[in-house]
Amino acid sequence: MMLSYFQRTKKEAEKTKVESKKEMDNYFAAIRDFERDRISLINGKVKFFQIGAFLCMIVIVIQAVALALMSPLKTAVPVMIRVDNNTGYTDAVSPLSDAKESYDEVVNKYFLSQYVVNYESYDWQTIQSMNDTVDLMSDSKTFSQYKTQITADNSPLNVLKQNNKIKVRVKSVTFLKDDIAQIRFDKAVLNTDGTLSADYSQTSWVATLAFDYKRKIKSEGERLLNPLGFQALSYRVDPEAIK
Fold it and tell me: Which of 57, 181, 189, 232 is most exposed, with the fewest beta carbons within 10 Å of its own?
């Protein structure tokens, strides 16, 4: 009976020992799993911050490149303001090397200037040539207006005749719209030898002109004078106010 008790106690002790060892193994396994999870979490955070730092670096580089590209746009460009001593009119004058006019603007200014010079100038020897040029560069209504003006009793043709000339100097061309411009110019009466006439004062004017490039060119000769088909659709000239 006593032997049976000790054998049973021994077996229970061995069983308890086995169970305790199993519990310890489970405990240490749980600790290992916990540490493994902690390490994975830390590694994940490190990787996240590395990616974030890399993206921030890319953004900084992009901003630096953008600022470098935009720097020329912030360069201050000196502009010279020209003031007309007689009229007080001001306009901006860009040095030729710095001018950024478009091709169309340069072409428009050329034809507008040529039109005004031919319309407003006078020379007995070349009046027919100027008349033909104005005709070629005008629509029918605008040329009819010119024809009436040049043949009037008080026109240069009938007043100055062969004794004097009128010289026109274009000072500026300003666009009110893409197809409407104002041309400022001076007119001076010259003697036949090219000197200023003492009988007439120099005058300043502003021409307002609407235009397009739809004139039909019919011959090679016309194309030489007006290659792009420029035509004035309306023309008005007013004295420039003197301050």
Answer: 57
